[in-house]
Amino acid sequence: MTGSLFSQYISQRLSALDLQNELKRLIRLYNEAKGTYLLVYAVDFEKASRIPGLSISLTMNDYQIIHELLRKIDQPILDLYLETPGGSGEAA
Predict the structure, then answer these.
(1) Sequence-separated (6 or more) residues with CB below 8 Å from residue 77
(2) CA–CA dist 4, 9 (Å, integer)
(3) Domain of 20?
(4) Helix or strand or coil: residue 22?
(5) Residues 66, 85: one domain?
């Protein structure tokens, strides 16, 4: 396999739905390999650049959303991946 995975995805010109399905597949493989549950919480950096005044920093509202998601997970081991430009340390 040549090049990075990212460059391969770009060269395939996958649709947003295809990329979403690939992300789900990779998360499933990660969970199986580690015996854990990976929760990915990422903001849309591009959306923020298109909508003036939109805040994408982590807030206590995000905390509430993540808390509700975690309450539904029946897995003792959790990995959490946060992708934000910063925000509230308390929320993180």
Answers:
(1) 34, 35, 36, 37
(2) 9
(3) 1-34
(4) helix
(5) yes
